[in-house]
Design brief:
alpha+beta, 2 domains, two-stranded antiparallel ribbon, elongated
């Protein structure tokens, strides 16, 4: 009954606010368009902000360590600066340090198996015997990356890399080339790309050596240190 009364009242006399807005309909449409455009810009800026700042720190947040060693020349993780692995041995000898594990980060050209387009991807590598990354999807598949020329691929890679997740879920093999070496996809994980990285691949340190040469595992990107309890 109350609703019927209100509808009857509004049908006779529209609310003052609506009457003011709809008095000049063209002006109202122009004003609403301007507000909508401003809102779209705000949401775009928030998207760029999350992509840039969230993307560049995502990997750091998933490193599983208490202390970290990086090159004194490094300005950020992706600038290619490394340090000698012997510094990890020195760190491991410090009293209270439980382990010092190398973590490798580099870039390579992924050849799309379907259209042969080359896309830049980031290669993450470590010794599978040490849980360097705090990623459950990865840690459940460590046995896979121990195999020669096997990689795990992020489900959220850019479309330029091809329909990798869909093909893998169908049980079909995926083989391609990275740095001139033939590799196969042996598993998937969920991580997310950034404005600067089209996609992430994970493999073992020995497969990293096969991709980049015999001196590659002596040049460490990040030293991941775990300390003893109470230290």
């Amino acid at each position: 009954m109350l609703l019927k009364t209100l509808l009857k009242k509004f049908s006779k006399e529209p609310p003052l606010g609506w009457a003011q807005l709809s008095h000049q309909k063209v002006r109202m449409i122009v004003a609403l368009s301007g507000i909508a455009f401003a809102d779209i810009l705000i949401f775009m800026q928030l998207g760029f902000y999350n992509s840039v700042f969230g993307g560049v720190t995502r990997l750091h947040e998933h490193l599983n360590g208490d202390l970290y060693l990086v090159s004194s020349r490094a300005k950020f993780l992706d600038d290619g600066q490394t340090f000698s692995r012997r510094h990890l041995y020195q760190a491991a000898a410090v009293e209270g340090v439980d382990s010092a594990s190398p973590f490798y980060y580099s870039h390579a050209g992924w050849i799309n198996p379907w259209n042969k387009k080359v896309t830049n991807v980031a290669i993450l590598a470590f010794n599978p015997a040490h849980l360097v990354l705090n990623l459950p999807d990865v840690n459940r598949q460590l046995e896979q990356i121990k195999l020669p020329d096997k990689v795990l691929v992020d489900r959220q890679v850019r479309p330029d890399l091809g329909p990798i997740a869909e093909t893998f879920d169908r049980g079909e093999p995926i083989t391609t080339e990275i740095s001139g070496r033939r590799v196969s996809v042996s598993g998937m994980f969920t991580f997310g790309s950034t404005l600067f990285v089209e996609g992430y691949l994970i493999t073992s340190d020995w497969n990293y050596l096969r991709l980049y040469g015999k001196d590659s595992i002596d040049n460490v990107t990040v030293g991941v240190l775990k300390v003893e309890t109470g230290v």
